[in-house]
User: Fold this.
Amino acid sequence: MKKVVLGFSGGVDSAVCAQILKTAGYEVHGLYLDNAGEDARSEAVMTAEFIGIPLEIKDVHAELDERVCTPFAEAYLRGETPNPCIICNPSLKFKSLLELADNIGAEHISTGHYARAENGALYKGRPDNDQSYMLCRIKQEQLDRLILPLGGYEKVRVRQIAEEFGLPVAHKPDSMEICFVPDNDYAGFITRETGYVSRPGNFVDLHGNILGTHKGIIHYTVGQRKGLGLAMGHPVFVVAIRPETNEVVIGENDDVFSTKLYANNINLMSVDKIEEPIRARAKIRYSHEGADCTIRMADDGLLECVFDEKQRAVTPGQALVIYDGDYVLGGGTII
Assistant:
């Protein structure tokens, strides 16, 4: 019987994964990455016992702080809007799964992501809940051993399966917040993490004219309209954030659209590098439906993406993920 190490949170997705893998004949070993409170840990333990799988608990508070929390906070100070889950997946979650798999002689690792891993390649899941975007920085050695049981399912069907198995978490709500910022107070977290204190600065237009006073750059992101507190008589938007001058640049709706971006931290899953320009489809945030574009490697080692049509709110710090149909070619970080 083949062994698999499953990232097990105790939620409906990981619980259904465990059942699917057991039904398929795998010997399932759960790994709970403990960065929350006692209640969450106890619930995961009880759910694992109900399903009948062993569960190892790993305290990841220190690793999470070093590899995810600190980079997340520091990115905000640079005027970026990072996605911490994309950072966490290869550097902490999948790393931990692979370490345990090697320790117990397991051939595979698994998570409850809604995407497909087939023959060392990553593909989109079902359109309504595809999470391939979140896996764009996964390392090839992790992908080669990855099983994603939920790739062919929609969330509503997963909850039905949980009911059919009688799982106690069948109707447990999905977690919507960042795990280490449960109160959604990003500014407060950044202050606690870095010691940074928000300093008021100027809202300026594209010509440098002062429009008003902002409460600190960590409170804003590119494309933002609400919560600006500017009486302009019509909707205006954050166009850019300038940490070096402590300015937030304000523009009209058209100013938020652009056709070209550059990305670093490139992770290509199909080839070592892109030799010639390629046609692809790219997403610039998790909720973005994707758009047709041309991708090439620039002279300075950055990845250049030129869209056929203007895209709204290309945001530094977010991930760029490129696709060939359902196949994930790779991704990078928008700069």
Notes: Residues 84-104 form the longest helix (21 residues).
